[in-house]
C-alpha cells in the first residue's frame, strides 16, 4: 500500500492509496499516525467499512473513549457514538436560524473542551448520507496561529481563556445568535439530556501540541467566555472582548477551514488537539447517520477553574 496525500480546499488532506481491508502493517500504521500529526484532518474516500473495522482502524491512533452522553452509544458497539438526524432525537436538536428550522447544527468547537482534557481525536464514518446539507466543517488552529501578526502572538503568549459549559446557545458569548431561536424542546440545562454539569475550564490562549510541538490557537467560539484577569496583562475587559472577537473572525476564515460534503464510504479523522469542527445541520426530516469513534485524550491541556 502506498499512501498519497492531496491537499483539501484549504486545510487537511485526502489520503488515497489506502484500503481499510488490506493488512495494516506497522509501517502503514506509523505512516497514518505521522500524517495525522502533520495535517490534523485526514479524509479517506471509498472505504468498504463496517463498525468492527472502524473500531480497529481508530485504535491505530490511540485508546478509544466512550462518550459521556450514553444515550447516543450504539447498543452493540459501545465504542460507537451515533449521530442521527431524521429520527427520535430531532426534537431536542432542532432550533430556528433566521426563521428556518434546522436539525443538529453545531457551532465551531473542540470535543470535551469544557473538561480541560479534550479528546485526542475522532473518526467519523458516514452511514446514511444526507441528500442535502449535513456538512462537517474543520478548522486548523495551528495554521490560524501561524498566520497571526507578531504583536498578537506576543499578547497571546501571556493570556489564558476560559470556556464555560452551558446548554443554551444564547448564553454563549462568542457564537452568532442573530436570528437564532431555540426550539420548543431545546435543552435548557445539562440534566435535561442526562448530561453532567462542568465547572469552567481555562486554557493557555496558545497551547503547545503535546506530540508535534506546534502552537495551536486555543480560541474556539463554542463555550468561549472570557480572558482570565485581563487587567493583569495590560488589557481592559473591553479590549479582551475585542481581541477574542477578532480571533474568532480570524480562525473561521475560509483559508483555515474545510467543509466536508459526505459521500458513502467516507472516513474523516481529525486531531482534536489542533483542529476545531462544526456541522451545518439538516432540514427537518432529512436522514443523516454518522458513526463516530473517539480517541482518548491522555493529556490535560487546560485547568479546571476553582480560583482565577
Ligand atoms: O455530525 C457531525 O458532522 C460532527 C458532530 C460532532 O461535533 C462530533 O462528532 O464531535
Ligand atoms: Fe464535536
UniProtKB/TrEMBL annotation:
MF terms in GO: 2-oxoglutarate-dependent dioxygenase activity; metal ion binding
Pfam families, A to Z: TauD
Protein name: TauD/TfdA family dioxygenase
PANTHER family: (3R)-3-[(CARBOXYMETHYL)AMINO]FATTY ACID OXYGENASE_DECARBOXYLASE, DIOXYGENASE RV0097-RELATED
Record family assignment: Belongs to the TfdA dioxygenase family.
InterPro entries from the UniProt entry: TauD-like_sf, TauD/TfdA-like, TfdA_dioxygenase
Keyword annotations: Dioxygenase, Iron, Metal-binding, Oxidoreductase
Keyword Signal: no
TauD/TfdA-like domain segment(s): 5-294
Keyword Iron: yes
Amino acid at each position: 500500500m502506498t499512501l498519497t496525500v492531496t491537499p483539501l480546499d484549504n486545510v487537511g488532506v485526502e489520503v488515497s492509496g489506502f484500503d481499510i481491508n488490506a493488512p495494516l502493517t506497522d509501517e502503514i500504521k506509523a505512516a497514518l499516525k505521522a500524517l495525522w500529526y502533520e495535517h490534523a484532518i485526514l479524509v479517506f474516500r471509498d472505504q468498504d467499512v463496517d463498525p468492527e473495522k472502524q473500531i480497529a482502524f481508530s485504535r491505530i491512533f490511540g485508546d478509544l473513549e466512550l462518550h459521556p452522553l450514553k444515550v447516543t452509544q450504539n447498543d452493540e458497539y459501545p465504542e460507537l457514538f451515533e449521530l442521527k438526524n431524521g429520527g427520535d432525537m430531532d426534537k431536542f436538536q432542532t432550533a430556528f436560524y433566521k426563521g428556518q428550522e434546522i436539525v443538529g447544527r453545531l457551532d465551531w468547537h473542540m470535543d470535551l473542551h469544557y473538561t480541560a482534557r479534550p479528546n485526542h481525536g475522532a473518526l467519523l464514518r458516514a452511514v446514511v448520507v444526507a441528500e442535502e446539507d449535513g456538512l462537517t466543517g474543520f478548522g486548523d488552529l495551528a495554521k490560524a496561529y501561524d498566520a497571526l501578526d507578531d504583536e498578537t502572538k506576543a499578547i497571546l503568549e501571556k493570556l489564558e481563556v476560559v470556556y464555560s459549559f452551558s446548554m443554551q446557545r444564547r448564553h454563549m458569548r462568542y457564537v452568532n445568535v442573530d436570528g437564532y431561536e431555540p426550539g420548543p424542546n431545546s435543552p435548557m440545562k445539562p440534566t435535561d439530556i442526562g448530561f453532567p454539569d462542568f465547572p469552567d475550564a481555562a486554557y493557555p490562549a496558545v497551547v503547545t501540541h503535546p506530540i508535534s510541538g506546534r502552537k495551536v490557537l486555543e480560541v474556539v467560539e463554542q463555550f468561549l467566555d472570557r480572558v482570565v484577569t485581563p487587567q493583569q496583562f495590560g488589557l481592559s475587559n473591553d479590549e479582551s472582548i475585542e481581541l477574542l472577537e477578532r480571533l474568532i473572525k480570524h480562525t473561521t476564515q475560509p483559508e483555515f477551514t474545510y467543509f466536508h460534503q459526505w459521500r458513502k464510504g467516507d472516513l474523516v479523522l481529525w486531531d482534536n488537539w489542533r483542529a476545531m469542527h462544526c456541522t451545518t445541520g439538516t432540514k427537518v426530516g432529512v436522514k443523516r447517520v454518522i458513526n463516530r469513534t473517539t480517541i482518548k485524550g491522555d493529556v490535560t491541556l487546560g485547568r479546571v477553574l476553582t480560583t482565577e
